Amino acid sequence: MTFPKNLMYTKTHEWVLLNDDGTALVGITDYAQDQLGDLVFVNLPEPGDTVTAGESFADVESVKAVSDVLSPVTGEVAEINEVLADEPQRMNQEPYESWFIKVREITDRAELMDADAYQAFVATC
Amino acid sequence: MISKLWAAEGRSFSAPKNLAAEAFLTEAALPGEIILFLWQNEKTVVIGRNQNAWKECRLDALKKDGGTLVRRLSGGGAVFHDLGNLNVSFCLPREEEDIPRQTRVLLSALRLLGVQASVSGRNDLEADGRKFSGHAYYRQGTKACHHATLMLEVDREALSRYLRVSPLKLRSRGVDSVRARVVNLKELAPALTVPALCEAVKQAFGAEYGLPVEPFSWEERLLGAERERLSSLEARFSSWDWTYGRRIAFTLSDQARFPWGEADLRLRVDSGRIRACQCFTDAMDPLWTENMEEALRDVRFAPEDLRAVFSSLPPAVEPGMREDLERMIVNLSIK
Q: Residue A86 above 80 pLDDT?
């Protein structure tokens, strides 16, 4: 299980990459995909939608189970990763490449952990 | 730690109402509580959260027999419910979710009734290699729900009449159904009834957690804001947008020969609406079909909406062409 150092993490197992230009990429962690099992579908918001820190912005389906995915930041959806709609298995294969959305106009963040803190947190789950 | 068990019973055989009640109970489950919900639907096709309604269900056959189509919150494939089926839901806080333990409740209940069952590879329940219970799950915020069907004496002929096996002409995103050999519990235990099964499930539920099971009082939990929440959930599960309008893109194509010529039709549908229509014909009047393609854009892929569009179009030069194309497209939306 990997925990890239350049990312920040939530207690609900999402990762966020905070870019220098004020945008952010959001996805689910290696631990999350491992817990969920084989992912077969993702339901993403649309560009222009608003996402709110700590609230659901997407959901994923693994074997007969649907789980919501919470946003680590508040802002506006600038882009969605359409590749995941056609190839949901990528979320399992490369969780940190499989960003769900790119967010801009970020005004708030959920409580975030760095890689070391998140790794320690996962050890307690 | 689980410290309180409730058993709630369905107050209706209406699928949208029951799905709303289940979602409500899931939201309402307090820390340490499990609410067991026992419910039944009249003739209903229930599709998974991320399934294509057109692909899974023969809508015309279902509607003609007075059946209902609903979309549930959990994942997985399409199932058919009637009053020969009992649904059991475990509504609880996410941190208390224990799927093997919840599944054990049902296995124990069946053992009480003399049925030896086991868990299949897809977490369904089967006896003698035949499935009688499908399980699916959803997790929202801090809450989780695990629900299961229990087939007692489901009309299996109706099941195969309404569920589509090999969809024609349709390519879609979304989750496919997995077919299984099924069996009704009555074939294994002929004396079994729905009330007896309900009692056994409640008994096994209490025994598994070592706690008394108290009857859930809808009256006490449905006050002011809760009542409004339940109504808005009911509206959601009965709405066209929830059942048909989910963002699951698909394409359809069909060809037909008519007295006036041939038609080759291609549709792209997303969020339940036609996003693009291409119709190739060898008819005399290409402008008419261009008009039609334009008029169909962003129209709901539902027979009444499609008919309304065609009745607003002028007749084509070729006699019968408007009516033939209307029938062709309407049929694609229901067959």
A: yes
3-class DSSP state for residue B283?
coil
Least confident of B80-89, B166-175, B188-197, B299-308: B166-175
Sign of CA dihedral A26, B173, B296, B283: positive
Q: What is the DSSP annotation of B79-106?
A: EEE-TTEEEEEEEEEGGG--HHHHHHHH
Is the per-residue pLDDT at B169 higher than 80? no
Chain B residue at shortest CA distance from A61:
B75
The predicted structure's pLDDT at residue B166: 60
Q: At what angle do helices B286-296 and B303-312 cross, to 10 degrees?
A: 140
List all residues of chain A from 70 to 89 with a beta carbon under 8 Å from chain B. 85-86
Instruction: Tell me how far apart the alpha carbons of residues B108 and B209 are, in angstroms, rounded to a whole number.
Output: 12
Residue B278 tokens, joined: 């291409």
Q: Chain B interface, mutation test: which of A66, A82, A125, most B Cβ atoms within 10 Å? A: A66
Show the domains of chain A with their CATH numbers: 8-111 (2.40.50.100)
Structure tokens, B138: 């959803």
The average confidence (pLDDT) of chain B is 94
Q: Are B133 and B107 in contact (CB under 8 A)?
A: no
Per the listing, tokens 């350049």 go with: A6
Average pLDDT over residues B194-205: 98
Is residue B167's pLDDT more than 80? Answer: no
Q: To the nearest 5 percent, what fractions of chain A are helix, strand and coil? A: 20, 40, 40
Pairing outcome for strands A41-43 and B68-71: unpaired
Closest by alpha carbon to B155, among B195, B184, B122, B116? B184
- Residue B122 in this model has a pLDDT that exceeds 90: no
Report the pLDDT averaged over residues A35-55. 95
d(CA B121, CA B185): 20
Euclidean distance between CA atoms A27 and A32, whole angstroms: 10
- CB-based contacts of B275: which residues, under 8 Å, 6+ apart? B249, B268, B269, B297, B298
> For residue range B74-84, what is the model confidence (pLDDT) as tens digits?
999 999 999 99
CA–CA gap between residue B324 and residue B228 (Å, rounded): 46
* Nearest residue of chain B to residue A65 (CA atoms): B137
Give bridge partners of residue B187 from the DSSP assignment. Answer: none
